[in-house]
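User: Quick one: structure for sequence A, then sequence B.

Assistant: Sequence A:
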Amino acid sequence: MLGACLSMGMAGAALGRDAPTTVYVAHLAPLNSKVTGSNASGEARFTIKGDRLTIRIDAKGLPPGIMHLQHFHGFKDNREATCPTPAADVNGDGIIDLIETGPMSGTTMVPFHNDPVSMQIVNDTYPKASAAGSYHYKKTVSLSALKAAFAKAFDDPQLDLDKRVVYIHGIFPSTSLPASVASLGKIPAQVTIPIACGKIERVAP
């Protein structure tokens, strides 16, 4: 019996090693640069091997020394999400706020902090930019667990990464913004304002 269990375990480990690797990448381009005073940019990489999903985000040009929310956004009906163009600024205040991204990008879906599977958007474990305005984020999660959490939240077990976009948010809390800049609920607009976005694309295989 013990020998059979060990054999099964070894077979499972081998299967995990031999599983194909699928890679998705989003190249992050700056948004609202006139507000941040810099050009936030970077890369988000999603690597799937067996039941392991590794999320890696490298960003630079960010407002330094503060925490930055980061997520993928998309549509619940799995339409293709895109990053906003200047036309998204429908109120003409010169700033594309979080609410204005909705028609092109959909809603906030999966957070990238210490526990993406929690699907908890409000969280204080998002990455904090260094004094140089950069950070490196890396987290490996169970793909099946994330799919189950996603299905519970959006009634859909498919993540459909290549239909989503990645956002980085956040400027200095002291930044003065027009009253027309909207946010979610009581969350200050300075926390949710998007500063970088990138479309996720499958690159391998």
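Sequence B:
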Amino acid sequence: MLGVTTVMFALLRAVPGDPAAVIAGPAATPAVLAAVRAQYHLNQPLVYQYGHWISSLLSGNLGTSLTYQEPVVTLIRQALGPTLQLVIVSMVIGVSLGVLLGVFAATHLRKAPDLIVSGFSSGVLGMPSFWMGLLLLLVFSVDLHWVPSGGSVSILSSPVEGLKTVALPAITLGLGVAAVQARFVRTAMVEALSGDYVRTARAKGASERAVVWKHALRNALLPLITITGIQVGILLGGVVVIEDVFARPGLGSVIATAIANRDYPVVEGTTVVLVAAFSAVNLVVDIAYQFIDPRIRR
């Protein structure tokens, strides 16, 4: 987190533009600009600005938005719900579909289903997510009118409307997750199905379904969990673009607006939250290993 925040702080200051001019407006006099820079410490050396920000961060203060004049924590709290909803639904779609396709390809190795799954993975990975999102919007929202083209409704308050608003962006992100998951699951399952314990289970008369889902898949889960943790971080970055494409409120929209307005505290605060979430997910992944593979506990 320290490394990411340091790099992010430096890159923000390297972006052309003056936040004081955005705050004060185009008609601001030099005296007003100087007063604004002094108020937000923008006239201080970068080392001082970084030290002031880090000290505030360690005390739990993410600062105040330069644009909205509201605490950054409040803005994040308002935008966090739709983003978490999108990430969770996308991961459910991506992991479920990826596991099914990977197992299907591994059990039909070098046959037509295996080639179809490989073609699907290559096609999805080769298509930019924003382009896929625009295609889905054009077909299912503009032409068919099945789902709304934007907005967000909480699934908890209205499940049907919530699923309608999250469907297209979640499928857009979920297909990318599924494409990666399918490749990893296929590779791990091919190796697992060639193991001695699989031959032993078959020799004992276990059904093919039990061999695949109970024995082979469980041993193939470790690399799957690892890549899932990494993909959560990729999704947290991908929502910035996808939420903008689908006009969906969330952390992505907040970050995009803050970057356009040179709103340093908002960009810094949301980045810290996303990095912390990614770190927490990877910690959970590390802990989950021991519950899946008892050998790790020993």
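The chain has two domains: 2-58, 79-297. The chain is about 75% helix and 0% strand.

User: Thanks, that's what I needed.
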